Amino acid sequence: MRITFIKENRDAGTESISTCDTAAFITRIKSETKPGHVSALRTMLEYTNHGSGGTYGHIDKLPRICPAMEYGRSREGERRMKRYNGIVLLEVSGLSGMSETELVKEQAALLPQTYAAFAGSSGRSVKIWALFALPNGKLPQREEEISLFHAHAYRMAVQCYQPLLPFPVTLKEPSPADTFRMTLDEAPYFAPDAVPFCLEQPVTMPGERTFNQRKLAENNPLKRLQPGFDSSQTFTLLFETALGRALDEVENWQRDRDDFHPLLISIGEQCFKSGIPEEEVVRQVMMHYRRQADEQTVRTALHNLYRECRGFGRKSVLTPEQDTMLKLNEFMERRYEFRYNQLMGDLEYRQRDSIHFYFHVMDQRARNSVAMDALQEGLRVWDRDVNRYLTSNRVPLYNPVEEYLCGVGRWDGKDRIRALAGLVPCNNPYWRELFYRWFLNMVAHWRGLGNRMHANSTSPLLIGAQGYRKSTFCRIILPPELRFGYTDSLDFGSKRDAEMYLGRFLLVNIDEFDQVSIHQQGFLKHLLQKTVANLRKPYGSSIQEIRRYASFIGTSNHKDLLTDSSGSRRFVCVEVTAPLIRT
């Protein structure tokens, strides 16, 4: 079984591929190489904070290893798959050091399906290789079958290994192309005779299933707050509420006039019942009343009160509304992940700790399920409480186009736009340059670059015989991650819907352009030059300015398309001379 080493040179924009036997790889990671890049990386991480933004200068010197696939090169120099190994990569990260990594390796070795287990390049993670195979002992060969098989195998691996491991598996979307950096481990676990898990060839991707969620039965309000909520903010919220209760008890108390001691005793009693630590109460009191109170007197009075009182933290000072709000926030953050898709105009969700990694639209059925889950956990919430949360600023905004463009990485210098245009056989010597400029304008619209005085008003028109795959070319212009923004169904009969397409889709294909009538071509030209659309959204009460994302392209089998006697500068007509090259 051979695995793949991938080494990138980002500065030169090149990539080298080599393969290695798994046994040779295990031997190789037992000792450090002469440059010592892994040890240097681990040393740097010991003195670098997670959010410091520091980078390791020799990170490209550490090749990436792909255990599940053996790759080679095609004649054109592109990477191609040679063989699927059936190895599923699991990762346990966030460990404190070598003692915990050794513990994880020992636990992983308990399963006979564990092919290898070793420390990651950071020294604070463990990589686990689990073997999988079909019932006949073979492995799938086609890429579509491999993707389905690997997704189900990853799910099974997590379910089998997680109960054995003392730390959670770091979940991520499974892919047979998953890689990790070259590492160092003097004592890796390796079992060349490991027995693979048996898995039938699936026909669909795994459905949505979640791990069992722990039920929070903690009475302390400090521990019921949402994950990541800063403790100082929590104490401040509780203290301010306790102070309000104390001021209600000591009526008409005024600064610089009344004795502070009665108010101090009342504050201490309320804070004690709420479960606020004594030292935190002293800090908050001195922050609020540093001119009225002596620190030593405050410390002595509160210490005596905390010794005398009974029932620490049994009675919260929070109002029922505050308590419900905090519980609902904690429940939503723990169980779900929400985002508002600005392009689609939809609220999307997914359950946390899930094997299925995709977001779904939050329809009424899903809203009711969330409310039922909250009631099942003992939260006294109504449907309107859930809906208020889902339609508030608690749900972050999400723009899928910006997320994609920010994640594509740095350009490697290879011209892919003109190469894409080269798939269209034609005799127009300017076609590649015209397509290149149109494509850049399309992406500029996505990013919101330029001024609001101009739009991407030029549209290519592919003209050719039937079966030349013109519409297929229009679809592959968008990458798979953005093809939700492609449409070839534009209804010119509804001008309002047509204008809404400007902010809803990324690429609009006017298929069978010759079907656009003479009267509709005038509106089409108006649509092409609009920089924004001012519309009232469905169920909206005001006119809003909708940002334009869409660019246009068209196809036709006929040459007599344009009827405007004054000219048609907005269309770049290209005659396709042969079937488009398959990709």
**What form results from the Cα inertia axes?**
globular
Could you give a short account of the major beta sheet? 5 strands, mixed
How many helical stretches?
18
Number of strands: 22
Domain tally = 4
Assign a percent range to the helix content.
25-40%
Mean residue pLDDT: 82
Protein name: Putative P-loop ATPase
Domain Virulence-associated protein E-like: 410-576
Pfam families: BT4734-like_N, VapE-like_dom
Domain BT4734-like N-terminal: 59-190
Textual characterization of the structure:
The protein is α/β, with parallel strands linked by helices. The chain has four domains: 2-207, no CATH class; 223-310, no CATH class; 320-398, no CATH class; 406-575, Rossmann fold, CATH 3.40.50. 35% of the residues lie in helices and 17% in strands. The strands form six sheets. Strands 6, 7, 8, 10 and 11 form a five-stranded mixed beta sheet that branches. It has a five-stranded parallel beta sheet with strand order 17-18-21-16-22, covered by helices on one side. A hairpin with a 6-residue loop joins β7 (114-119) and β8. α6 packs across α7 (261-274), α7 (261-274) crosses α9 and α8 packs antiparallel against α9 (295-308). The longest helix is centred in the first third of the chain and has 19 residues, at 143-161. It is globular. The two termini are 30 Å apart. Mean pLDDT is 82; it is low at 208-229. Residues 59-190 form the BT4734-like N-terminal domain. It comes from Bacteroides stercoris. This is Putative P-loop ATPase. It holds the Pfam family VapE-like_dom.
